[in-house]
Amino acid sequence: MSTTSLPTPDHAAELRSAMLAAGFTADGLLDLLGAPAYAALARSETVPALRATRGGGDGPLATLVRLFLLQQPVPYVHAATAMPVEAALADGWLRREGDEVHATVDVRPYGGPDGEDWFIVSDLGCAVGGAGGIGSREEGVVLGVGGASTTLAGITVRTPVGSALDIGTGSGIQALHATRHATRVTATDVNPRALGFTRLTLALSGAPEAELLTGSLFEPVGEATYDLIVSNPPFVISPGARLTYRDGGMGGDDLCRTLVQEAGARLNPGGYAQFLGNWQHVEGEDWHDRLRSWVPRGCDAWIVQRDVQDVTQYAELWLRDAGDHRADPDAYAQRYEDWLDEFEARKTKSIGFGWITLRRTDAAEPSIVVEEWPHTVEQPLGDAVLAHFARQDYLREHDDAALLEARFVLVEEVVQEQVGPPGAEDPEHVVLRQNRGMRRATKVDTVGAGFAGVCDGSLSAGRILDAIAQLMQEDPVVLRDRTPEAIRLLVEQGFLEPVASPGQQSAP
Predict the structure, then answer these.
(1) Where are the alpha helices (DSSP H) in 84-232?
(2) Alpha-carbon dihedral sign for residues 174, 179, 182, 187
(3) Residue range 355-364: average pLDDT?
(4) Position 98 pLDDT exceeds 50
(5) Do 432 and 491 meet the contact criterion of CB atoms below 8 Å apart?
(6) Which in 211, 309, 327, 384 has the greatest CB count within 10 A?
(7) pLDDT for 45
(8) How far apart (Å, rounded) are the C-alpha atoms in residues 468 and 460?
(9) Higher-confidence residue: 306 or 2?
């Protein structure tokens, strides 16, 4: 796979038109295959789709599915009814053997956030990236779209920017998204083959061209700075750098650390850098502190750990990803030993996975939030990321006295849950739960629940607390003293939204 030459994009516009005319889109696939077979494709399982297309005739859509998604040969005459076949052969999208043609690359329809019909081009048999068990040990193989790719695309801030940088672009999905809202897009990769696939992805998707540069991390871009930096890097912590698409080639989690630490100097004021990463949980070290130490000076940070695996689970996951479990049992056992030896030498107990967002700031005291949130969230989260940093700005600018003078509203779709024994007069505790975005849940006491429930923007926080104190027969001064910390937490986590005073704007 990694040694074959790539198609050229010379006739990509004509090929795109033919694919769209045939209905070779995300919606078209769902209609043709049905939901179960369509979902199986996302798991790199092709048998249900093969069954679904057996009786589907030889129409253009079925032909394109068999060619580019299922990698099955089709008769030349059928291909000729589905696309400009001679141009596809000349450009290298197809190769001919007798009366049949074969696809040379995987082309997968991908729906953009605003209904765009895009196509992601990758190596044959590697349409789904990440730990999906693609079973390829080809060093330079280029993967398509996987869960990690779509996660990063979903959390990325999508405000219009002048410049965007995609580090380790792979098949180009992040660069493709960036072309929607960035005037200039630069994509880099240590693997020149990946840049070739990015060029094909952009061309076949009808997107503007990007600047494509070969090299590792920030080396290819020199001293250039950007408004947005994104990367789904080869973050797997492994002994060695066997597979370019996943193994960073640095010891432990040094690649992710280096990427984060060097990003600060490459951001324009107010710019964002957003990464996926793995990090070590080291014996005798707090992982929160480890990640805080990565944050460059002059940057706010929001780091969310989404999952943790012990070292045996982690090694098995990525050994299976490369198909090592299907190799010689002794070779598999030796590789397993190598991984565990590496972790033992580094005193690594487990591996965390998550998201890292930086924002360039001129604040005297940057905000660094490191948290664990393994629960379900609602993608896309780009607006939630913007709102998080806006809330950090607000809280930095308002001391406790200012919070008591401020007015707040309870965010829509927050619900209250009371927890306690059935029939009890009073609950053991009250939980506020969000049904959007991060879908957070937080425990509050009676005062906190009552306060949040009456926040409609009409009264200041202090006046609400005075009323609660009167109802509960508490000292209002004591209540005012002890409650700002709870208000600050509810604002920080997005349960309460500040209401702007006349002439000011509300924080999101």
Answers:
(1) 85-91, 147-155, 173-178, 192-204
(2) positive
(3) 97
(4) yes
(5) no
(6) 384
(7) 84
(8) 13
(9) 306
Encode burial over 421-438: b for 16+ CB neighbours within 10 A, e otherwise.
eeeeeeeeebebebeebb
> Which residues contact residue 287 at a Cβ distance below 8 angstroms, ignoring those fewer than 6 apart?
279, 280, 281, 305, 352
- Reduced to 3 states, what is the DSSP secondary structure of residue 184? strand
Q: Which residues pair with 188 in a beta bridge?
A: 167, 213
What is the pLDDT, as a whole number, of residue 327? 80
Please say if the pLDDT value at position 134 is more than 60: no
What backbone phi and psi angles, to 5 degrees, belong to 381?
-115, 10
Q: Cis omega before residue 380 (within 30°)?
A: yes
In Å, what is the CA distance from 338 to each residue of 164, 244, 319, 447? Answer: 38, 18, 11, 55
Element (H, E) at 257: helix 254-263
Residue written as tokens 């401020």? 406
Percent of the chain having pLDDT more than 70? 94
What are the strands of the beta sheet with 429-434, ordered from one edge? 414-419, 429-434, 441-444
Contact call for residues 299 and 264 (beta carbons, < 8 A): yes
Which tokens in the block code for residue 136?
């390829």
Residue listed under structure tokens 């993608």? 379
pTM over 0.90: yes
Dmax (CA) of the chain = 91
Spell out the alpha helix ranges (H) of 372-492.
Answer: 382-397, 400-405, 446-454, 461-472, 476-482, 484-492
Q: At 364, list the tokens.
A: 């005297």
Match 């180009």 to its residue by tokens: 172
Residue that has been written with the tokens 């349960």 in this structure: 495
370 token code pair? 């490191």
pLDDT at position 136 over 60: no
DSSP 424-451: -SS-SEEEEEESSTT--EEEE-HHHHHH
* Amino acid in position 68: F
User: pLDDT (tens digit, 9 = 90+) per residue, 62-93?
Assistant: 999 999 999 999 999 999 999 999 999 999 99
d(CA 345, CA 368): 30
**Cβ(188)–Cβ(215) under 8 Å?**
yes
Average pLDDT over residues 238-253: 80
Structural contact between residues 319 and 336, judged by C-beta atoms closer than 8 angstroms: yes
- Residue 276 to residue 421: CA distance in whole angstroms: 42
Strand blocks (E) in 283-423: 299-310, 348-360, 368-372, 407-410, 414-419
Phi, psi angle pair for 395, to nearest 5°: -70, -30
Mean pLDDT of 481-496: 97
